[in-house]
Input
Amino acid sequence: MRHALGPSTHTLELDQVAELNAQLAAGRGLAPAALDLPATGALRQVIAEGPPNFPYLYGRFDDPAGGRMPLHTEHLRALSRQLHLNHHWGV
Output
């Protein structure tokens, strides 16, 4: 189920996703091994779906097999650390 976000909707999670995507779009794709994931291509985008206050997050990879995997707190923490971003994931 997709939720449309109003232009004034901001949450910490969505702001952090936007920062991750800005780094990834700048050519800083990460190998899945850096995040302990079984995908075969580099991570290119983090996708948020669901309610904005508790979105489900997925990684889009350059992977011929489909390339989309759920990202959990430990993956997001590792990703932020690899990209040198000061993020707060989880409760």
